[in-house]
Amino acid sequence: MSTDVNVKMDAIPGLDPNAMPLQVKDLHVEFRTRNGIAHAVNGVSFDLRAGETRAILGESGCGKSVTAQAIMGILDSPPGFVTGGQILYRGVDLLKLPESQRRKVRANKIAMIFQDALSALNPVFTVGFQLGELFRKHRGMSRRDAKARSIELLDLVKIPAARQRVNEYPHQFSGGMRQRVMIAMALALDPEILIADEPTTALDVTVQAQIMALLAELQRERNMGLVLITHDMGVVADVADRISVMYAGRVIEEAPVEDIYASPAHPYTKGLLESIPRLDLKGQELSAIKGLPPALTNIPKGCAFNPRCRYAQDVCRQDPSPPLYQVSPVRTAACHFWKEVKGDE
Amino acid sequence: MSDYVLETRDLVKHFPLTRGILFKKQIGAVRAVDGVNLQLRRGETLGIVGESGCGKSTLARMLVGLENPTSGDLFVQGRNMAKVGGADRRRGRRNIQLVMQDPYTSLNPRMTVGDIVGEPFEVHPDVVPRNKRRARVQELLELVGLNPEHINRYPHQFSGGQRQRIGIARALALNPEIILCDEPVSALDVSIQAQVINLLEKLQNELGLSYVFIAHDLSVVRHIADRVAVMYLGKIVEIGTEDEIYENPTHPYTQALLSAVPVPDPKLRGLRDQIVLTGDVPSPANPPSGCRFRTRCWKAQDICAEKEPLLVPQAKSPHPSACHFAEVRDVVHAVD
Question: Quick check: pTM over 0.95?
Answer without folding.
Answer: no
